[in-house]
Design brief:
Bound molecules: adenosine-5'-diphosphate, magnesium ion
Largest interface: A-B, 24 and 27 residues
Oligomer: heterodimer
Helix content of chain B: 25-40%
Order of helices and strands of chain A: HHHHHHHHHHH
CATH superfamily of the largest domain in chain A: MetI-like
Strand content of chain A: under 5%
Number of helices of chain B: 7
Structural class of chain A: mainly alpha
CATH architecture of the largest domain in chain B: 3-Layer(aba) Sandwich
Strand order of the largest sheet of chain B: 6-7-8-3-9-10
Number of helices of chain A: 11
Strand content of chain B: 25-35%
Order of helices and strands of chain B: EEEHEEEHHHEHEHEEH
CATH class of the largest domain in chain B: Alpha Beta
Shape of chain B: globular
CATH topology of the largest domain in chain B: Rossmann fold
Distance between the termini of chain B: 40 Å
Amino acid sequence: MTPTRKLMLQLSGIAIVLLMWEIAGRIMGENLLAAPSIVAVTYVELLLDGEMLIELLNSLRQMILGFGAACLVGMPLGALMGRSRLIDALVHPWISMIVVTSVAALVPIFMMLFGTGFEFRVAIVFVATIGYVVLTAYHGARGIDPKILDVARSFGTGRIDTYRKVILPALFPYLITGARLGLVHAIRAMVVAEMFVIVGYGGLIFQTGLDLSTAPILGYLVTIMVVSIGANVALQRVGDRVAPWYAARMAR
Amino acid sequence: MTAKLELKRLAKAFPRGSEPPLEVVRDFTLEIRNLEFLSVIGPSGCGKSTLLRLIDGLILADSGRILMDGRDVTGVVGGEGRGMVFQSFDLFPWRTTRGNVEFGLEVAGAGKAERRERAEHYIRLVGLEGFEDAYPHELSGGMQQRVGFARALAIRPEILLMDEPFGALDVQTRDILQDELLNIWSTEQKTVLFVTHSIEEAIYLADRIVVISPRPARVERIIEVPFDRPRHERIKSLPEFLQLRQEIWSLLKEGVKI
Ligand SMILES: Nc1ncnc2c1ncn2[C@@H]1O[C@H](COP(=O)(O)OP(=O)(O)O)[C@@H](O)[C@H]1O
Ligand SMILES: [Mg+2]
């Protein structure tokens, strides 16, 4: 399929859904489901008003901290788990538990531990993200071609150099994938956590949910979707730039 | 001539769970002369790679010793005068030609200027100038293996261990690289241990050929190759060449029980 054709099809898919949404919106009315035409108008107002973007930036700043910390801890941890049975045995059960636990279920405990401020949000995002980052790095590390490690050994590569110059670059595509997956979960966790304590962007969504019109809330959702998808694409671009060898191999 | 490398009664078996261990190398004794080109030939699965990995220290022998210039290097991994060229090239896909060639020097702690200069020399030697900044995926198989040569040569090993380096290449590329390898060998002063399962390749390249019996690998016969150097493609059709080929073929056939 040519890229233009693919793009056309994707756009058509979106257009069809928008059309159906418009029809449904007209039938159901604005306080059940605002039609896209109404949402569009409201959306411009929200943008001009500025509160949405300010809250979003504040929330994203905290989300980035939690997400960054999860990457910083999770990537080396996953790599070590993949290379060492001992560390794997010690840590894996905890990671499995974290991954299956829903963020919402953690909120009450985290509120007691961290209050409802900055630390609370960062901690929630951290916990919601780290499992995905760790597990992708882990599977990457386990799958490293033993032949490439033989080459390293054959040149007398030391332990640290083996990690720095062989395992880390071999893992790079997995780290990027882990970061992308983690980021989606980080943003979700951010919104959920904020809805509970009614602060930031999630708080904004929660409060707007009490309004009569559903147009603003749909606007907020559109924004967060755009942010999430945009961040994902950006991370992928970074990966392709830093690792041209990987991008080229995937394209085949 | 003095022995460059001595293998003394090497043995290696791989454990196989509840079954008895798989004996891959047994009682393997061989002297490799200084600066000779020695081919090792045997059917696939007979333990040739295992033998090279033992010599390179990538795996430990169960018993026996490996001496280099009389020094015991049994189980000493990597570097130490040995350079390995791998069958499937096994380049680092995230490194360019230059980066791959510099790898061994880098981990040995060589300075940047020295690395660069030496990498350039060997990249030129294997005929890859102009491809310094290419990634492996941008190179053909033959070119990738040239990088593999340069990478092994860059650490200036005294012994070059080559594990079926042309096994994954098409026939034309293989013929060209054989001649280039001989050229490089004549200028670089190396002892070469060249593993192959192609009889023709073994004869064409080597001073001596070690025929190996199938598992467990042992020296079946050592054959001196009578052809002068430099060698040319045309010796492959000489009666002596064909006769030698026939002789090795019979030896190998005897060993293989189907
Ligand atoms: N690490 C290993 N563990 C278990 N068996 C092995 C291992 N390496 C090689 N073998 C076995 O040893 C035999 C010889 O292998 P190899 O040395 O690769 O043969 P060749 O290179 O002559 O084709 C094969 O049967 C192979 O399955
Ligand atoms: Mg082999």
